[in-house]
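Final paragraph of the annual report: two paired records, presented back to back.
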Amino acid sequence: MSGDDSEDGPPATDADLTHTDESGEAQMVDVGDKPDTARRAVARGTIRLRPETVAAVRNNEVEKGDVLATARVGAIQAVKHTWETIPMCHQIPITNVDTEFEFAEDVIELSVAVETTGKTGCEMEALEGVTTGLNVVWDMVKSAEKDGDGNYPDTGIESVEVVEKTKREL
């Protein structure tokens, strides 16, 4: 979660866990004494679709409207509201969000880069941006993806991961 930089050092032990107190109660990590640093995280994920649906998205021919523009807005909104959906996640000042879509025959990949200057990282924000952006794509194309029984046998969100995380002193 944002605020836990244990991944910057050795693996955490039970004694190092910071999201619970001595009695096992959940708590937010105190980052007040940490110095402000410039931070960047990039996450990516894919949505698997029928090839004709991918072509319709690429050519902006989906009935509901501009899928990519709507997914970008959804991704950015999710980044900005991550602290409201992930327990114990700090509200951080987002200084930049970039979204990028890439196409293959039956896949759309979304990458979300998030930048902040503060006391804690932004990888959860990048992950939230990717998952929400891909969910928006699914929502906008679901009528084209449904089979005769109303299911989605060719549709899936996959491989959501953090692919870059950097921190530099100011």
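The closing record of the year follows.
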Amino acid sequence: MISTSIHAKSSNSDVSTNTQPAENTKPAKESQNIGTPFSHQTVIELAKKLSQSPMQPIEKAPQALIDMDYSTYRQINFQQNQAVWGNTPTKFSVQLFAPGFLFKDLVSIDVVENGRSFPLTMSPDSFSTPNDEIGKLISEVGKYAGLRLHYPINREDYNDEFIVFQGASYFRAVSKGQTYGLSARGLAVDVAQPKGEEFPMFTKFWIERPASSQDAIVVHTLLDSKSITGAYRFGIYPGKPTRVEVKSTLFPRVDLQHVGIAPLTSMFMHNNSLDASDIPDYRPAVHDSEGLQILTGKGEMLWRPLNNPKNLQVSAFSDQSPKGFGLIQRSRAFDDYEDLEANYQTRPSAWIKPMNDWGDGQVELVEIPSDAESNDNIVTYWQPKGGLKKDSSYTFQYLMTWSNDTPVSLDSPRTIRSAKGTKLFGQHPEVVIDFNKMTDVNVDDLSVDANISEGEILEALIVKHPYNKGVRVYLTFDPKGANVSELRVQLKKGDGAATPTWLYRWLEE
């Protein structure tokens, strides 16, 4: 099973809520506590040691906190005057999440100052709660369910929440002017496998205190799971756009065949051009992401529109040393969605750029049937060929960019819209693909390179598109009775590519 997006939508404050820097909650470093020496190597050694024995059960919140309903949990709020570094020259501040409801796993959080780590302590004043009983329970637990970082990304005089770590190994971020949408994870294990998915967890965090002049912050985490452990370092740069440099060092406890590196999790319900809603909906589109984009090791740009299928769909895009991939929210106008509450036009895209050689493998895309926009039904990640082996270590480094669109090849043509229907005055399926940024191109110099896995391409036509300064491709095909057909379309000028490669899995309705 793929988890629902409640992890990404149950934060006790919306990203659009700006908070003033508040009083400082000090770490526990009284005279008798001089802290513990710390570096990222500390986390690596801890992860390696843990991998040599079976996973120990994660400490849970008291049952009374777990049994809370969502509305009660929403009433538990971290007191802003307790924010770590909230009233200091440091531009960043840290706020914390209380355990309860779905967030039953307890995590430890340390702050790091001058190369030494100090555990954050919890006091009865840390959270405002619906009643004294809940407040007492949270105080007695003394641990947290996650954290969020604040920084003035929209206005210099307000600290905005811009990144959240909460639930398993999930985290999500926003850039200037954005609202929360898709999520990232530390690691994915056995997604869409018959034996069920395993959810690795960040069990401990170390947050380095930035200097007052710094515009970046470093967070270290320890990942633990039945099958694998890991040490993560996040170098976080908030702003326009927000960027996260990730270094993960992994230690499998067992041989892992199905493991996902740099996983992204999102939601796609429908759009009226390729995947219309099964029930009437006044909104033309409902999604956090609309397409998977891949920049292959050979430099080919691929665009694959997302589906909300009737049955589970898994697609694999084989590659060697990939240059990037991500889930993209390309449509940026309110009219694209007509949703006054969700504001899907302000949801971020997320782009993964490998910073070391990832070798052979595949970008895998999992599309899960869904009838509720509160569910995350889209997952993508890099799957190394051959998986990961027990008693070995693996390092994956990558840069995540939470931008409005793919932050590469910005001046090159892009696929900006796809639609499907039936050929006018005919009976065969037809797809329409729009490419922009081709103002000066002569369509007579272009050719359509189109392939279909099952069936036959009947007609391909290119016309100028004056409204998007590009071209439109009409492609008519006959699936010849097939239930599934893979389409591949690229415009060429001579022997070279003139556009990204458009991929689509056509499913018989």
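The chain has two domains: 6-402, 415-507. This concludes the annual technical report; the extension proposal builds directly on these records.
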